[in-house]
Amino acid sequence: MIPILNAILIQVQHTADMQNADDTQKFFVVVAVIAVLFAGITAYLISIDRKLKKVESTQN
């Protein structure tokens, strides 16, 4: 995921000269919101997986 974000940031740096600062800031807000959502969903799925493993181990 880091290389993808790095490529996005490099592209933004090149296009930032042509756009005003407000558009660039809005883009970073969108990227940050998507990253937070992805991290939250990942953490939720990991917690469900751990709970499921615990239930499966008690049944055996």
In short:
This protein is mostly helical and 60 residues long. The chain is built from two helices and no strands.
What brief labels describe this structure?
90% helix; mainly alpha; 60 residues
Question: What is the number of domains?
Answer: 1
- Biggest sheet: strands, sense, closure? none
The Rg value, from CA coordinates, equals 19 Å
Give helix % range.
Answer: over 70%
Mean pLDDT: 83
> Uncertain regions: pLDDT < 50 for 5+ in a row?
none
- Note the total helix count: 2
How many beta-strand segments? 0
Strand content: under 5%
SSE order: HH
Give the helix/strand layout:
Layout: H1 2-16, H2 21-59
What does this structure look like?
90% of the residues lie in helices and 0% in strands. With 60 residues, it is mainly alpha-helical. The radius of gyration is 19 Å and the shape is rod-shaped. It starts with a helix and ends with a helix.
